[in-house]
């Protein structure tokens, strides 16, 4: 494998998540020096130990935590905003708590980490910011309206910011996965009560119907796209949403 990230400091938020860890592992294999952030301190430490990364645990929807993470990185070359996660419910079933959690996890983490990293990248005249968005923003996936409100903000932030920093050596893009299977999600579902498994099977059938390849994507497929967008060679790519979606946006 090439060493596209040799000498580069890469911050991955949500580094304890299956996708965040997969991205971090991919970039580590390409030579990155990693700094991981996540709310889940135990899983974060395990991920950092496995990858030889530095880590900062805490709630990145709080500005001081985001600043502490970026300051641990010193001078970040790459920021992958992967902290997030859906509270996937029919819209009227959301509570005040789930509404706020959805926006906090996805949008505020991205805003605060990006705002902390930008001045450092601007001073260095180099930066790659990659937001992990969601294909559901584009296709209006069933039960995803509130999640889409949060991830839609993440997509929109990237396009606006890309224009502001286009002449400063900083690119800002979104990689938008569709339905990605992870061993963790499979195990959670296998342990769920029968009624929930039936409900989810119907839900997955609906999602599958939107994907021409008729299968979920893998963490490795997301990580491969992120690695390109985050690399130096993606120098003319900014303000874009790259869908990793098995063709699901094709009519
Ligand atoms: N799995 C999918 O099908 C899919 C599809 C599209 C997008 N995504 C996005 O990919 C990313 C990773 O998702 P995943 O499926 O691997 O697992 P996940 O949804 O469990 O990952 C979310 C991670 O973010 C962390 N996090 C949440 N709020 C945080 C906060 N306030 N501060 C710090 N960390 C916080 C969680 O602890 C967790 O490790 C998420 O942004 C998710 O929205 C996932």
UniProtKB/TrEMBL annotation:
This is SDR family oxidoreductase. GO terms for molecular function: oxidoreductase activity, acting on the CH-OH group of donors, NAD or NADP as acceptor. Keywords: Oxidoreductase. InterPro entries: NAD(P)-bd_dom_sf, Sc_DH/Rdtase_CS, SDR_fam. It comes from the Bacteria. PROSITE patterns: ADH_SHORT. It comes from Amycolatopsis acidicola. The keyword Oxidoreductase applies. Belongs to the short-chain dehydrogenases/reductases (SDR) family. The keyword Translocase does not apply. The lineage of its organism: Bacteria, Bacillati, Actinomycetota, Actinomycetes, Pseudonocardiales.
């Amino acid at each position: 494998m090439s060493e596209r990230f040799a000498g580069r400091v890469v911050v991955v938020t949500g580094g304890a998540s299956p996708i965040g860890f997969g991205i971090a592992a991919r970039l580590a294999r390409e030579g990155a020096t990693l700094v991981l952030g996540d709310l889940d301190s135990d899983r974060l430490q395990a991920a950092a130990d496995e990858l030889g990364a530095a880590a900062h645990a805490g709630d990145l929807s709080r500005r001081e935590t985001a600043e502490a993470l970026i300051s641990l990185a010193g001078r970040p070359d790459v920021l992958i905003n992967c902290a997030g996660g859906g509270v996937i419910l029919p819209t009227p079933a959301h509570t005040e708590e789930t509404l706020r959690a959805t926006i906090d996890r996805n949008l505020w983490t991205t805003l605060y980490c990006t705002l902390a990293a930008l001045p450092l990248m601007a001073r260095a005249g180099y930066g790659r910011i990659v937001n992990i968005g969601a294909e559901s923003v584009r296709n209006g996936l069933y039960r995803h309206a509130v999640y889409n409100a949060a991830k839609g903000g993440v997509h929109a932030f990237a396009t606006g910011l890309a224009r502001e920093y286009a002449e400063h050596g900083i690119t800002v893009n979104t990689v938008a996965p569709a339905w990605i299977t992870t061993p963790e999600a499979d195990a959670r579902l296998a342990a769920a009560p029968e009624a929930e498994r039936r409900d989810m099977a119907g839900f997955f059938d609906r999602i599958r119907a939107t994907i021409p390849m008729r299968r979920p994507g893998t963490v490795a497929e997301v990580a491969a796209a992120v690695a390109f967008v985050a690399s130096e060679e993606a120098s003319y790519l900014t303000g874009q949403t790259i869908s990793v979606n098995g063709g699901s946006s094709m009519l």
